[in-house]
# Entry
Amino acid sequence: MRIGVIGGGAWGTALAQVAAHGGREVLLWAREPEVVDSVTAERRNHLFLPGIDLSPTIRATAALTDLAATDALLVVAPAQHVGAVLAATPVGRRPLVLCAKGIEAGSRRLVGEVARAVHPDAPIAVLSGPTFAHEVARGLPTAVTLACEDEGLRAALSERIAAPHFRPYGSSDVTGAEIGGAVKNVLAIGCGVVEGAGLGQNARAALIARGFAEMTRFGLARGARAETLAGLSGLGDLVLTCSSTSSRNFSLGVGLGRGEPAASLLADRRTVAEGAFTAPVLAQAAREAGVDMPVTDAVCRLLGGASATEVVGALLARPLRDEGV
Ligand SMILES: NC(=O)C1=CN([C@@H]2O[C@H](COP(=O)(O)OP(=O)(O)OC[C@H]3O[C@@H](n4cnc5c(N)ncnc54)[C@H](O)[C@@H]3O)[C@@H](O)[C@H]2O)C=CC1
Ligand SMILES: O=C(CO)COP(=O)(O)O
# Structure
């Protein structure tokens, strides 16, 4: 199976490195000509994944049409751009493995729904989990959820993507795998705020637990399975992203917690903090589904300029309730 990777950011490049394990050929599409040039000439991606020597079997291209020569595609463009990039990609009936974590603004569609609308004949899989790109690219042990309804395709993709340090666990719950990744980015911003505002580790643990409760409420309302949300792509990724400044979402929250305005934190950044785009869409989708998501609403207010003191005070002042989900 020849693998194509759409997106030469940190994660697309790290996944290309995994897929190239053992000398297997990979074609990486990057939007930035300097990424194509540096991967081709130096086996490096200076822009998005500096310091990593890439496998010589990764070939880079600037032409999406070149991906016609591959058997399966890993889709690693940011969630807000997946629709446009896929529309320009020859796909047909080839499997799409979706690796972006977010919900499309405007349409409020999960990335899988976006992909199905653009390429209805392509089978869909989702790869998601606790995976900082720089760790995966360095060969550190990592486990992910690989969700696909078709059992045979799931096994074939898992076999093809697995490497000694990279272990996919199969699931048939595509929606659950998508929702965990999208929601945890929003919650990670909240945890960053707790850190930046100096609110302590008790508050962070409470936010992770109550955030997981609202991820579960939203997921179940959208047809996800509880076991998926409690797995690698849900709770696993939530814990990772809520506890490290390696996370762009967490780091964005740290800035907000210190009182820096969202607009300046987001301006001119080359890397993507998906939660900032997903938060308002998720809040709206939750309202439509009648699902209470107070932490997500709080993150929206923080992104809109409200102070951490005011937002956290309002969260704590909510009426007392039983724990549960
Ligand atoms: N970096 C990581 O550790 C991980 C990232 N992800 C997810 O992977 C997805 C991609 O993130 P990264 O590779 O980290 O990106 P990145 O932050 O390293 O780089 C930004 C990416 O956005 C692309 N981009 C910017 N404007 C675009 C446009 N108009 N059209 C198409 N592409 C555009 C750039 O070409 C580049 O590939 C995100 O959904 C992210 O949540 C998932 C797991 C781990
Ligand atoms: O998804 C990730 C780790 O699993 C990366 O998180 P950030 O996008 O917040 O850096």
